[in-house]
Each structure stands twice: as C-alpha cells, then as structure tokens.
Amino acid sequence: MYDFSNKIAVITGADRGIGKGIAEAFLPLGAKVIGTYHSNKNAVEKFYNKNKIYSQNVDFQQLDVSDYHQVEKFYHYLESTYGTFHILINNSGIRKDAILGMMKEPDWRRVLDVNLSGVFYMCKFAIRSFISQKYGRIINITSPSGKIGFAGQANYAASKAGMVALSKSLSKEVAKKGITVNCVSPGFIDTEFINDLSEEQRKNYRMNIPLKRFGTPQEVAWAVIFLASKEASYITGTTLEVTGGL
Ligand SMILES: NC(=O)c1ccc[n+]([C@@H]2O[C@H](COP(=O)([O-])OP(=O)(O)OC[C@H]3O[C@@H](n4cnc5c(N)ncnc54)[C@H](OP(=O)(O)O)[C@@H]3O)[C@@H](O)[C@H]2O)c1
Q: Would you give the end-to-end CA distance of the chain in angstroms?
C-alpha cells in the first residue's frame, strides 16, 4: 500500500467526478487534501458529508484556475496555512464542443483559458515550493482527444495536447530538483462531464473500447496515486493512459 502520511496534495476540481475519485483515494492513504472547486458548493457539501472521518485532512477552496490573480491568492493562502505542499493534480477541465467552423471565439478561448492556462498558472506557483524542498509530484489530467483528436473538440483537443507538451517541457526543467511531471489520460469515464452523450452515442463509443465499458473515477485515481507516490521516482515526462484500451 502507498503511504502519503505527512504529504499534502492539491487537487483542482476535487468536489466531483474524477477529481473527487482522486481525493477519495488519497485520504485513506494518509494524505491531506486541499481540494478546489469552481462554483458547485453543493458538491463540496456532499464531499464533506461523505468523507466525515477524514474531515481533519480535507480543505476546500473556491478557485477559478483560469484567473491568474485567484491562483496567486490561493497559493498565498496555501503558504500561510500549510507552509508547503508536495503533490499537485491539475484535474479541473471543461468542454465547449462545436465543429470548428461553428465554434464561437469565446468558447475557444474559455476552454484554452481553463484547461491550459490554468495548468500553467497552477504549475508556475507550485514549482517555487517544490524547487526549494527539492521534491514534488505534478500530475496533469489530459485526454485521448489531445492525442488523436475528436470531431467537435478542436478547442478541447488543443488544450489537452498543449497540456502534454507543457508537462514534457516542465519535466525537463525541474528533473534535477527531484520533481516529476506526468500526465494521466483517462478515456470515457462516467462523470457529469459526459452527461450530454445520448444512449446511442454511449453504445457506439463502448463498442470501440476494447474493454467494452466506460471507466470509473476510481480507476483513474489509482493511476494518479501511483505517479504521485515516492515509488514512481524514475518516471517523468510521460503520459499514462487509462482508457480501457481505446
Ligand atoms: N469524464 C471523462 O470522460 C474524461 C475523459 C478524459 C479526460 N477527462 C478530464 O478529466 C478532468 C475531470 O473531468 P470530470 O469528468 O471529473 O469532469 P466534471 O465532473 O465535469 O468535473 C469538472 C471539475 O472541474 C471544475 N472546474 C470547472 N471549471 C473550472 C474552473 N474555471 N476553475 C477551476 N475548476 C473548474 C469543476 O468545479 P465545479 O464542480 O465547482 O463546477 C469540477 O470540479 C477534466 O480535465 C477532463 O478534461 C475527463
């Protein structure tokens, strides 16, 4: 079993979906989780209620990762409250799908702002702490869309491919400081993120997945836990796919 005692993990978008699955995997392993949410206070409430036994080890903060000043303020809070932290999971993400010719400019920009600039901001402040303590784990949640592209997802695919490129570059910059930077790429995972898929679409997608089913947040979480562990010390600049073989 992995041991995250005395480790603090920051997880963006930890209130629901994959981020919640990751947070709930860290807690029994001893980590303190600083989760962020964007606007869904209800989901945060539910999280606290469900995970009461770990309440000492959970702290949720409201944060729009696309806002540089909010991110800066979040890190001031983190530093003044906890001093330092050890693990950063950039999980927050949005979709605003449309075929490229019909894609509205604000939808292009918003997806890039949240999914890509948000990761840049979060990493920029994190590595300051990580460099001074000569230890850190960064895991960014990308998507197969960034590797193979999906029709209607030019903005999303570009943001997720950019995230992989950012991670690879950063991994080379900080490797000598004991910091690893990797991506996890989930396939179709049953969360609100894909609530808009019709039953017909779900059936078709499932047929193309070798394991013939969608994944769960927990199945993504275990890949993240592995990469976040001290045992994964020789893995950096890579992407672990959790796609059922897609
Ligand atoms: N589900 C899939 O099939 C799938 C597949 C591949 C990759 N992914 C990636 O996995 C990650 C998590 O997806 P999910 O399925 O868990 O999605 P989800 O259930 O829709 O959750 C999205 C999370 O992102 C947060 N968020 C949204 N906008 C934000 C912003 N501007 N600033 C900060 N946080 C923000 C949300 O906070 P609120 O709750 O407050 O709104 C929520 O916690 C995303 O990066 C997504 O691209 C998902």
A: 28
